[in-house]
Design goal:
The protein is mainly alpha-helical. The chain has 24 helices and five strands. The chain is 57% helix and 6% strand. Strand 1, helix 21 and strand 2 form a beta-alpha-beta unit.
Length: 470
């Protein structure tokens, strides 16, 4: 198991510097420069880690992604340890770790510094610790700490945690809660979560507004009900579906039927509320771990069977790597299926080139107003080379950070449509379009730039109508 986890981490490290920053990573860097107890769209953990890694080396993409690599590797290790807790031996632990390491979701999220990989790590660790509760109730103390820290990364964690607790009670494991350590765990989690709750309450709970916007399809990775269902067969690779399905069956017929029950309830909840497919991703490591325990008992010492199973996992890993790691040359992406399957790959392309074009279009002294946080974050990251000022945007936390100065009579806008600008400025003049030079269709390709002259009101008065959450 340790060898598999080490190889997995090495693969992520080797590929971590290819292509470029993801738009979310650029945003986390910007948020990290303005550390707070919360933001309108997220808790503070990812921005804090981005700032920490930037302090180590502000120019290294590899250094910035080290926490993501560590979190993804932890998911792999937890899968192996869960197999051990469920009665598996060395072979089952290695097989569980290998199956999870081969998955598209763990590879893809481990390549980028983002909230999803830390959510996966927290949920995998919680599942492992719940299995350990069967022997020692003191593990509740660690669970409380993990939940509290996980909530400082992603509020969504509260949903599966609550569902698992309810499922444990319904599945006859109420005695697990009959200890003072459970109360301490709840207290630890609340104390760690309290600064986030305080900030949100003081600012009108903007993250709940954002959640409704995402449920309505405002995110670039939002899913329809049909794609939500279909993607469940691809998150960990279609070749592993029989294994995690078998694992769910085995858990249902064991003491730990709370896990497949939680999976089923979460599947319905996220489907009904417009959740994204990967919201359910944290459940698959424990299902796969249970599946490998039963599979290893069937494999026995038969080398041919072992070779066949290992070959399936290796093929799954190769497919995942090609689609979700920056393996292919950038120039070949346009003609590959990668961008159609992996939306995030396109969002790591050509940010320095875009900033160069923005700098060329900007009149001296003009502030910059962008449509989204990716454009603004890229300008903050690469703009110093061209003497660009700190940009402004109405998107998410950037809106909280303020408008252009009221005395600005000409502002360069990026990605904002002319129709919207005609209600803001008296004169709107085209300043070109963004072009990555690769004919790759990502979110910024072909986006317009305009000079917005003579605003109809001071920017501080216009600012409320430019606010966007999503």
């Amino acid at each position: 198991m340790s060898v598999i986890a080490s190889v997995f981490a090495l693969v992520l490290l080797v590929t971590s510097g290819r292509y470029g920053y993801h738009r979310d990573e650029l945003y986390f860097l910007a948020a990290g420069r303005r550390l707070d107890w919360s933001y309108p769209d997220q808790p503070p953990l990812s921005p804090f880690l981005a700032r920490l890694m930037a302090a180590v080396d502000p120019d290294s993409l590899c250094v910035m992604r080290l926490p993501a690599v560590a979190a993804a590797t932890l998911v792999v290790v937890c899968a192996g340890l869960m197999a051990g807790e469920l009665g598996g031996g060395r072979g089952a632990r290695a097989l569980a770790a290998g199956a999870v390491a081969s998955s598209a979701l763990v590879m893809g999220t481990g390549h980028l510094l983002g909230t999803t990989v830390f959510d996966l790590a927290a949920w995998s660790l919680i599942c492992l610790l719940v299995l350990k509760l069967g022997r020692d109730r003191r593990w509740w103390l660690v669970i409380g700490a993990v939940v509290g820290l996980g909530l400082q990364n992603k509020v969504l964690l509260i949903v599966p945690v609550g569902m698992l607790a309810l499922a444990l009670a319904l599945a006859g494991e109420r005695k697990l809660f009959a200890t003072r350590y459970f109360g301490f765990a709840v207290g630890f989690a609340l104390i760690l979560w309290l600064p986030y709750l305080w900030w949100q309450a003081e600012n009108g709970w903007p993250q709940w507004e954002l959640s409704r916007a995402i449920a309505g399809g405002s995110s670039g990775t939002s899913d329809t009900p049909i794609t939500y269902v279909l993607l469940q067969f691809g998150l960990f690779g279609p070749l592993l579906v029989p294994l995690w399905g078998y694992g769910a069956w085995r858990l249902w017929n064991s003491r730990w039927r709370a896990f497949p029950l939680t999976y089923a309830v979460l599947f319905v909840v996220f489907l009904a509320t417009g959740g994204k497919a990967y919201y359910l991703g944290g459940m698959y490591p424990v299902l796969l771990a249970a599946g490998t325990v039963g599979l290893c008992r069937w494999l026995g010492a038969d080398r041919k069977r072992w070779s066949a199973v290992i070959s399936v996992i290796a093929v799954n890993a190769a497919m995942s790597a090609v689609l979700f790691l920056p393996v292919l040359p950038i120039a070949s992406l346009r003609d590959s299926p990668v961008l159609a399957i992996n939306y995030d790959a396109g969002e790591t392309i050509a940010w320095p080139r875009y900033v160069e074009q923005i700098a060329a279009a900007r009149p001296p002294g003009a502030p910059i107003l962008t449509a989204n946080y990716g454009e603004a974050g890229a300008i903050e990251r690469y703009g110093s080379e061209y003497g660009l000022p700190t940009p402004h945007s109405g998107h998410n936390a950037y809106w909280w950070w303020g408008p252009p100065p009221d005395n600005a009579t000409a502002v360069l806008t990026v990605g904002i449509d002319r129709e919207q600008l005609t209600g803001i400025c008296s004169v709107v003049v085209s300043a070109g379009t963004l072009d990555n030079g690769l004919d790759i269709d990502n979110d910024e390709q072909g986006e317009p730039m305009f000079l917005c002259r003579n605003p109809i009101r001071p920017w501080s008065q216009l600012w409320p109508q430019l606010r966007t959450l999503g």
